[in-house]
Design brief:
Layout (H helix, E strand, L loop, with lengths): L2 H24 L6 H11 E3 L6 E3 L1 H6 L1 H12 L3 H5 L3 H21 L22 E5 L2 E4 H9 L32 H13 L6 E3 L4 E4 L2 H4 L1 H8 L2 H6 L2 H4 L12 E3 L15
Parallel strand pairs: 6-7
Antiparallel strand pairs: 1-2, 3-4, 5-6
Length: 270
């Protein structure tokens, strides 16, 4: 076989292997994925507009052993296994872990709490409690969100994906995040959140856009992605109902109040 043909064959084999590897990654199910998907399908209820969701914690409490099995599977993932996943696979897994462990945290005191904040104390917030194991170490939700997710992935849409079990949070999706669907899921999560008129809307009379305090708390992340918070919001002009052709530089931004009430079924209103 001539050298040129040998090189072409080798290149073709490498490309085929890469394509198969990518395909396998796209179809990958993290440990605990299927069990988590089954729980979310029943426990998460969306509003008619599909922009906000609540959680049936009473039903979830009756199926807590199934949730614990999911969490044990997630906790069993080793650092070596995690390192072998693609970036999208890693991010999807970490978002799922954050949301699933948050559900478990709520169930430790449900139904005797009005807000996730009730699980904290004067000296330590609920997000700083080290109550689960992930990638071989005891972790808190704060570490998972701010160090493992935000500190590693320059992806501002995660702020519409991680769920803090409150009515003011973006919707908890009724499906786990997965490597092959991650971009679609993140886009849907952020677009759906900004389309929720109870938390984000354009006031034509005032000529300004009102958005969730999430965009104030994490303004740096949005500015890093688009140059400024205003520019980032302008990319979701349809979801926000902004006038067509509006310049981001002229966008006036104000922040709505945040509702820390537990996102339990029937509590978050219309």
């Amino acid at each position: 076989m001539k050298k040129g043909k040998s090189f072409a064959l080798a290149a073709s084999l490498i490309l085929s292997w890469l394509a198969c590897s990518a395909s396998a990654e796209e179809a990958m199910r993290h440990p605990g994925f299927d069990g988590y998907a089954a729980l979310l399908t029943t426990a998460v209820k969306f509003n008619p507009e599909g922009t906000a969701s609540e959680v049936d914690y009473a039903w979830l409490a009756d199926h807590r052993q199934e949730l614990k099995a999911v969490l044990e599977a997630m906790s069993g993932v080793s650092q070596e296994t995690f390192d072998g996943w693609s970036r999208s696979g890693q991010l999807a897994f970490l978002i799922n872990a954050y949301n699933a462990f948050t559900l478990e945290l709520i169930l430790t005191r449900y139904p005797d709490l009005e807000s996730i904040k009730d699980l904290g104390s004067l000296f330590r917030s609920p997000w700083k409690q080290e109550f689960f194991v992930l990638l071989g170490a005891e972790r808190s939700l704060d570490e998972l969100e701010h160090e493992m997710i935000r500190g590693t992935f320059a992806e501002p849409r995660i702020h519409a994906a991680v769920n803090c079990a409150s009515c003011g949070c973006p919707a908890l999706l009724a499906e786990p995040f997965s490597p092959g669907e991650l971009d679609r899921q993140l886009a849907a999560a952020m677009g759906g959140f900004l389309a929720d008129r109870s938390r984000n809307y354009y006031d034509a009379d005032e000529g300004r856009v009102w958005v969730s305090p999430i965009f104030k708390w994490y303004e740096e992340d949005f500015a890093d992605a688009a140059g400024s918070l205003e520019a980032y919001l302008a990319t979701f002009s349809d979801a926000l109902g902004l006038p067509s052709g509006g310049a981001s530089a002229a966008l006036k931004v104000k922040f709505t109040d945040y509702d820390w009430q537990l996102n339990d079924l029937g509590r978050c209103g219309p």
